[in-house]
Amino acid sequence: MSAVGGYASRAYAEALAEFGEVIELPNCGGALLGQSIADSTHRDAVGPYPIFSCRDWSGLSADLDSLSGRFVCAYAVTDPFGETSADELARAFPDLCYAYKQHYAADLSRPLDSFVDSHHRRNIRKGLKHVSVSRLTASAETLAAWQALYDCLIERHDIRGIARFSAESFAKQFAVPGFDCFAAVDAEGICGMTLWYVDRGVAYYHLGAYNERGYGQAAAYAIFSTALQRFAEEGVRWAALGAGAGTTAADSGLTRFKQGWSTETRPAYLCGRILQPETYQRLSIAAPTGTTFFPAYRAPR
After folding, report:
1. Is the pTM of this model over 0.85?
2. Which of 53, 11, 47 is nearest to 179 (CA)?
3. Which DSSP category does 45 fall into?
4. Which domains, and CATH codes, for the chain?
5. pLDDT tens-digit readout, 103-137
6. Which of 19, 68, 71, 84 is nearest to 48 (CA)?
7. 3-state SS, one letter per residue, for 131-196
8. For residue 181, what is the enclosing H or E element?
């Protein structure tokens, strides 16, 4: 098997270890996180945020079989570029498997000017007038600059939960194989940055953050155009840009931004498997009536 990086690597799951025990899946080569179930001694095996990926999807079902003595459920949002099919996912996750979100993707074998939105092209020109874009290494200085920008993002959007990564988690994320980073620099210094993971011909957009100068100077457009062009020159075939905000968000700014760089969409599946049916039923007694949430005992109350 070829080496893997990014979301498919154990190193990425280990970067999220503060959110759960890393559960290695030896047959497929991926990893889940073991998380406690509230008011219970039981645990679930949960896919890393934002997506679960692995080396060999054909081995996933056997790995899940082996977890039945330790976990009540296993569930994850799957990689839209995973080399698998909806049927194969449904066999591995017979209790829940549906196209959860459409993720935007760009075919980098095509010239950027042939598909990037005209509004984006105007903002690219604006951005490149105000900032220069540099590719940075995963150094302590880069990490410190990123943390300052991400603190701005946390405050701007009131980010909570697993996406409010700790400094320790970011230090580990910077060390994951396939990590890449681009920064926008103006006269006062770094004003924006994007993080990527490159794995088996796909550049996955991981995170982006900007300060007020970056927002005002269209730094995101300058960074994305430079990063996508660089990836294309290096033979990366696809850019995986992620989904929009929320579950629909057809009119959100984030959706419009990602859509404007894309050539197509690919589904990410929300998948779940009940590993201990009796325990599942017992824990779900107190779930809200009629909930479709999975697992039912984790439904908001």
Report:
1. yes
2. 11
3. E
4. 6-102+268-298 (no CATH), 109-236 (3.40.630.30)
5. 999 999 999 999 999 999 999 999 999 999 999 99
6. 19
7. CEEEECCCCHHHHHHHHHHHHHHHHHHCCCHHHCCCHHHHHHHCCCCCEEEEEEEECCEEEEEEEE
8. strand 179-186
